[in-house]
Design a protein that fits this description.
about 80 residues; SLH_dom; signal; SLH domain-containing protein
């Protein structure tokens, strides 16, 4: 009998979730707060991680002052993160 194992996940990781994972790995402050991005309000679960990672120079948003937290993070973006 042959068995196959799925490697990875079917669901894509969002930019917000990636920010949280990176923030936790680097022990950044993840407390929810206001950010500089128009589309990330203070109640967003990732707002603290996004803000801390941006201030640390790890990640950045888009030129239109958005972060697009619900978009799937690409491999290219993850490399830059």
């Amino acid at each position: 009998m042959c068995q196959f194992y799925q490697i990875g996940f079917e669901d894509k990781v969002t930019r917000a979730a990636a920010a949280v994972m990176i923030g936790r790995a680097l022990k950044l402050d993840g407390v929810k707060r206001k950010t500089a991005f128009e589309d990330v309000n203070a109640t967003n679960f990732a707002s603290g991680s996004i803000d801390s990672a941006v201030k640390s120079g790890i990640i950045s948003g888009y030129p239109d002052h958005t972060f697009k937290p619900g978009e799937a993070v690409t491999r290219g973006q993850l490399v830059i993160f």
